[in-house]
Amino acid sequence: MPPSTLPRSAERSPRPGPVANSLAASRLGMWSIIFFTVAAAAPETVVGGGAVSGFAVSGVNGIPVGYLAVAVVLGLFAVGYVAMSRHVENAGAFYAYIAKGLGRTSGTAAGGVAVLAYAMVQVSLVGGCGVGAADFLHQAGGPALPWWVFSGVGTGLVAVLGVLRIDVNGRVLGVLLLAEIAMILLYDLAFVTDPAEPGVTLTTLNPLQLGTAAAGVILVIAFTGFIGFENSTVLAEEARDPRTVGRATYLSLALIGGIYGLSTWALTVATGPDRIVAAAGEHSTELMFVLAAERLPAALVTLGSALYVTSLFAGMLSFHHVCARYLFALGREGIGPRALGVTSPRTSAPTAGSVTQSVITALVIALFAVTGWDPIVHLFFWGASGGALGVLCLVTATSFAVVGYFLRVPGHGCGRWRTLLAPGIAAVVLTGILVLTLRSFGTVLGLPPGSAAAWALPGAYLAVALAGFCWGAVLRVRRPDAYARIGMGARSATIDRAEEPGDAN
């Protein structure tokens, strides 16, 4: 029976036998997908770490309005993204969307960029978690151990969880996420009810800040906090009902944007809008807890510090799953090593992809430990910012891909708003944000004007994209069977150069 005539449940089931090339279907409900998505965004890490570092490095106080602005733009993006998710079910989400909307060679380029970007984000969180755990233990009266010890332990735990059933990981993330969100909201309440001079003001939420020269810096720092909101579609193959992926995407985006905008604004209320930059520079990632200690019992400050570490751990675990699934998707479809494209017969986890990401993480941590490079600036902040740049490139390209896909697919059953207008507007706005980001990337990293290092990461993405594009062209000529499978997901094993309506060449 052809795959198109199989019942949906049968089409999505893993193949029997010792080795499968499909992820486990029907493992995740809507809330589990939301837990994975929001945990990847790591709310307490972004508010207490990324946003505070952003205030200090950039020297601007308009980051709260930046979070709200980016949430609106990504909401427009999500309209077309969710509409296309009903037609594309693939663990390599951006890669598959771009392949179907802009062409298979563009998809191979996107696959390389996605692997690099998400690996950078995941490893950056491992570094931040190690530093956070070491600081917490020392402040609690424990021994002063090197940060890389804790990063190594965290990498080991994630490596074990990464090869277990996905629903087990969903429950772990759910507990950690609910605890950190409750603590963040408690801190927000304390900050707003006990403000610094001049009291509760909305200065840092003024949209006019986005019309200044600092707009690029504000937007790129804000966008960094949203990395992970798109991961709901990565889990579509493992959802109990793929239709819940859309709802999970919208709810996750609203939750992330709301928490970021509220909590970073509350920080500026607690210090005073004019003092947030100086306070962030003085206290660094301890600022949120220093402010909390002035307003709340010590036990709640200690608990919040512990949850900051678990927030980082939850983020690194969630992004580990994303990295493993991208590697799996590329291997399954013949773009990467085929050994990566198999799953465990017992757990249906992408074991080879998971182990590969664990090895990459361990090697990077070892490199930083040996060289003595700063794990906060050069690994955590630079790594997360560099990863955000790659994801921004992918989101922008995906907006164009959504429009391209629906222009080719007749009878898709979606209105023009979802298929053309919203993704078209998002594509234009995201392109503008990308240009501003590239122009101000050195400032975001705290580098002097004209620094060659500011172009190293954008240059690396360009090189990877060009290599991926060339590899796609090679596959088209030398391995047409693999080329035909690009972007097909679980169906790739049953496809023999056949194309669906809407597949781009």
Automatic annotation (TrEMBL):
Every Amino acid permease/ SLC12A domain range: 58-393
Keywords on record: Membrane, Transmembrane, Transmembrane helix
Keyword Transmembrane helix found: yes
Membrane topology according to the record: Multi-pass membrane protein
Localization, UniProt: Membrane
TM segment ranges: 21-42, 62-84, 105-125, 145-164, 171-190, 210-229, 250-268, 306-328, 349-373, 379-407, 419-441, 453-475
Top-rank lineage group of the source organism: Bacteria
Name assigned to this protein: APC family permease
